[in-house]
Amino acid sequence: VLGALGVVVPARRFPFAFSRLARALSEVAQVSAHLPAPEPLPLPPPAEVGPQVEVVEPPRELLEKANLQDFPALYRQSLEDPEGFWGDFAQGLLWARPWERVYDAESRAWFQGGLTNAALNALDRHLPERAQQVALLTLDGEGTLEKWTYRELHDLSARLAGVLKDLGVGPGDRVALYLPTGVEAAIAMLACARLGAVHMALPMGLGPEVLRQRLLKGEARLLIAADGYYLRGRFAPTRAAVEAALSGLDLPVLWHRRGTTEFLERAMEGKPQEALPVPSSHPLFLLHTSGSTGTPKGVVHGHGGYMVGVAWALRHLFDLKPGEVFHTTADLFWIVGHSFGLYAPLFLGGTSLLLEDRPDHPSPSAFYQRLERLGVRVLLTSPTVLRTLRRHGEARPTGLRLVGSVGEALAPEVWRWTRENLAWPLDNWWQTELGAPALATPLPLPAKPGFVGVPLPGVEARVVDGEGRILPPGERGHLVLLRAGPAQLVGLLGGENPWRGGLYLTGDLALMDEEGYFRILGRSEEVIKLGEARLGTAEVEAALLTHPQVAEAAAIGLPGEEGERLVLFVVPRTKDLPEELKPLLAEKLKAHLFRHLGPLGPVEVFFTESLPRTRSGKILRRLLKAELLGVDPGDTSGLEDGYGGGKDS
Ligand code: ATP
Ligand code: MG
């Protein structure tokens, strides 16, 4: 069952008897079917929450203008009356034929019977009213800023669709994109959507072998590729890698030659295509997960539900007001870029800033200046970016109103830094498979730093033990979903169904408090087993981050004499920390950790200048573990370029 769920867990690392959990899944599902919808969220005064958890009220100006004034009631309605809740919101979008049913619990299908098209809603719906409004701001790796209006994006993508059609691309065909974040990628995605074709964006920097495998497994009919991209100000050529990947394959390629406008000119030669109305669950794109736990999985999202789910989240969770500029630091070729770099802002008729290079390049102050100069009010970024900014000290004023954080746990210390230096932090938990946030702390709920928040409308979540039994508040266990929102996947590459017996196993470790707030503790399969205790990586890392000398930290468990021993990788805040200070700092960090988490047995500390990351910015702990154990790290196609090994000293 776990295999079918796409969860690859080496036997020796099974936490909490994962196998028994798998067996118990269907039983729980039966039980869960009879569970009442969760009680509306009580919002007791902070005093009742316990001494160590801080409860922070959002600032008054955010509270007053919050969209979701009565969150508990809205949440309840989303589950009990999906027709009303989601149906009303979906009415605001354009449908070529109305749906017959908003949500079918049995098949988990959304907006069945409806015909629509994501490109129709991203572009055509806004014309002619927003013809002259800027839809995208693009800043490429050379520092060139360009503005693209709704009219321009519409015309470019409609004509590019004509070019693709002439190349034989039709509804359901997959088109691979190997393009950096920028207007070319955006119009390629929208052109595919128009035709009912399926875009499959591949991360820049993938080597020839992985690229080839993705093209083959994804059954691409066409490749649109750039001959290079910018990373930290440096140009990385890709033509040779693409050509090597293609050798012997009969796959046509449309090239985007960097530094030229050839691709856009070629696009303009096409005959404009109308957006093809397709069924709600018709595939819009295929996208791979980050590969944190193993080989990246290919996830398929559809037009209808996805459109409603991401638009709802940007409007109501991220609270984007009409006319405001939105920016996500995520690359377009990650789910966060798909959902919130491109689609949701356009569905809402907003303006999105797309950035090719890393946000902190050439410096954090350039990042702050950019946000202010371009009038960005809502930012969606990742803990990695926030930790990097924090390492450089105080921020300068940005004009931001809200800062979303997704991808990894947001440690309380980093939450606080964000609150003090940028704007109100909005942690949100989701996955490539879910398409849009599933857990978060929407305004007007108070935040509990360290807790991501509560299930969002449409989502039901539980924490279960290895047997699949629902655990009482405060206990650590596996995070499972009983229901997911409209933006959830329509399938996995390979045809598997991630739902088993009514349960969706997220692969994450969590606990829920008395008020229904969830804390994500790390990955289930990375749980650290210290004697009888079970610790999530995020718990240990968050405790370390409260030490003033810690900029970044990764915790892993390594097999020891009895059970596991804790191994820490620490990036000190001071660059080039003198060798002779390291043993002393290591001792201080251990003592610091014990003060926070109690005695943890033998601990080993390594200092390093950088941690291995996925291209989406997540710490790749399994690589650190493999390095120390001297074993094969497995699939590292998700690894970001430029990692040179974790153990400096
Ligand atoms: P793979 O599935 O290939 O191992 P991945 O799970 O990292 O990779 P994504 O879909 O990009 O791929 O990431 C989803 C995961 O990211 C979640 O399951 C969770 O572990 C982590 N995550 C996302 N948001 C948060 C958050 N706000 N807090 C804690 N963890 C988060
Ligand atoms: Mg995953």
Tell me what you see in this structure:
The chain has 18 helices and 32 strands. With 649 residues, the chain is of the alpha/beta class. Helix 6 crosses helix 7 (183-195), helix 6 packs across helix 10 and helix 11 crosses helix 12. The protein starts with 17 loop residues before the first helix and ends in a 20-residue tail after the last helix. Residues 289-294, 296-297, 335, 406-409, 427-432, 452, 506-508, 520, 523, 616, 618 line the site of adenosine-5'-triphosphate (ATP).
**How many helices in DSSP terms?**
18
Low-pLDDT sequence parts: 1-51
Structural class: alpha/beta
Q: Radius of gyration, rounded?
A: 24 Å
Q: Characterize the overall form.
A: globular
Task: Report, as a whole number of angstroms, the end-to-end distance.
Answer: 42 Å
Listed once per kind, the bound small molecules are: adenosine-5'-triphosphate, magnesium ion
Mean pLDDT: 90
The tally of beta strands, per DSSP, is: 32
How are strands sequenced across the largest beta sheet? 5-4-16-15-17-18-19-20-21
The residue fraction in helices comes out at 25-40%
Strand content: 15-25%
Q: In this structure, how is the largest beta sheet organized?
A: 9 strands, mixed
Protein name: acetate--CoA ligase
EC number: 6.2.1.1
Organism: Thermus aquaticus (strain ATCC BAA-2747 / Y51MC23)
Enzyme class: ligase
Can I get a quick summary?
With 649 residues, the chain is an alpha/beta fold. The protein has 18 helices and 32 strands.
